[in-house]
Amino acid sequence: MKKDIVDTAVGAGQFNTLVAAVQAADLVDTLKSKGPFTVFAPNDDAFAKLPAGTVENLLKPENKDQLVAILTYHVVPGKIMSADIAGKTADVATVQGGELAVDATSGVKVNDATVIAADVGASNGVIHVIDTVLLPK
């Protein structure tokens, strides 16, 4: 049986910051639930591109609401595979409530991020690895 989104991210080894953030935001149970979810998952390099101190600040308990908003902005209800959007552009609603601009006409861009690995399957959805942390507008 496939692992769920959280266990898949933990096992990949390139999402240590994301996993720590999901734990700090108390979103583990949500992302282990039935779903399905599509997660645009920033890798550790993506988090490292944020200004110094940003991640540490977001992980503080008093900033939990902001952290939850940022993380849920990376999650779309439903399972969207790259083949579903190939050659298309779309605005997709996130769990956070905002929208992501997805452009799959030449590679795949999500807002300002590039998908660097697509269609990482999980039991309750799919992960697409991105190179930039998405910040809600």
From TrEMBL:
Q: GO CC: one term?
A: extracellular space
| Record field: transmembrane | none
Mind telling me which InterPro entries this protein's record contains? Adhesion/Biosynth-related (IPR050904), FAS1_dom_sf (IPR036378), FAS1_domain (IPR000782)
- Where in this chain does the record put each FAS1 domain? 2-134
> A Pfam family for this UniProt protein?
Fasciclin
Q: Which domain of life does this protein belong to?
A: Bacteria
Checking PANTHER family in the record gives: FI19380P1, PERIOSTIN-RELATED
Q: What is this protein called?
A: Fasciclin domain-containing protein
Tell me what organism the protein belongs to: Denitrobaculum tricleocarpae
